[in-house]
Amino acid sequence: MDFDYDDQNIFAKILRGEIPNDTVFENAHALAFRDIRPQAPVHVLVIPKGPYVSLDHFARDASAEEQAGFFAAVAAVCEGEGVEGGFRAISNARADGVQEVPHFHLHIMGGRSMGPMLAN
Ligand code: 5GP
After folding, report:
1. Tell me: the pLDDT tens digits for 77-97?
2. Which end of the chain has the lower number of beta carbons within 10 A, N or C?
3. Cβ 91 under 6 angstroms from ligand 1
4. Which domain holds residue 27?
5. d(CA 94, CA 100)
6. DSSP codes joined into one string, 37-73
7. Is there a domain that residue 52 lies in?
8. Is 105 a catalytic residue?
9. How many domains does the chain have?
């Protein structure tokens, strides 16, 4: 599959510092920031700094260092956000996944029961 990365997407602009964000954690390979429309008391987006469209793109093409850096950021967010009670991690991809922003991101949501996995 060809993954066509659009460098004008909103998260690319956040990574370039063109749009402000509420940063929770950052390392060499990943940035974590609060979702602008939170759907839970904790709603953080973790994104790689590299140009990956979706989870399957990142899993296939990102280097071991990028993948380790990304998951180190996930661990830091979970540790820092106090989600000992649990959380939900979601990554929407492409049209069927109803992905709004075409830069791979993992939603980390918690701070309350997240309910059934799917509403429909
Ligand atoms: P998706 O549907 O692509 O999985 O989710 C994209 C998420 O990005 C949504 O939850 C939306 O609220 C969030 N989002 C969209 N634009 C911005 C923005 O400019 N800043 C932040 N922090 N979040 C955004």
Report:
1. 999 999 999 999 999 999 999
2. C
3. no
4. 20-82
5. 8
6. S-SSSEEEEEEESS---SHHHHHHHS-HHHHHHHHHH
7. yes
8. yes
9. 1
* Number of Cα atoms under 13 Å in the Cβ half of residue 75: 7
Cα 36 to ligand 1 centroid, rounded to whole Å: 6
Tell me whether residue 9 is in a domain.
no
Which entry of 29, 43, 105, 107 is annotated as an active-site residue? 105
Q: Give the global pTM.
A: 0.98
- Contact by Cβ (8 Å): 30, 46: yes
> Would you say the CB of residue 10 lies under 6 angstroms from ligand 1?
yes
Residue 39 maps to which CATH number? Answer: 3.30.428.10
Cα 45 to averaged position of ligand 1 atoms, centre (Å) = 8
Q: Is the pLDDT of residue 120 over 90?
A: no
| Measured distance CA(77)–CA(33) in Å, rounded | 9
Residue 99 near ligand 1, beta carbon < 6 Å: yes
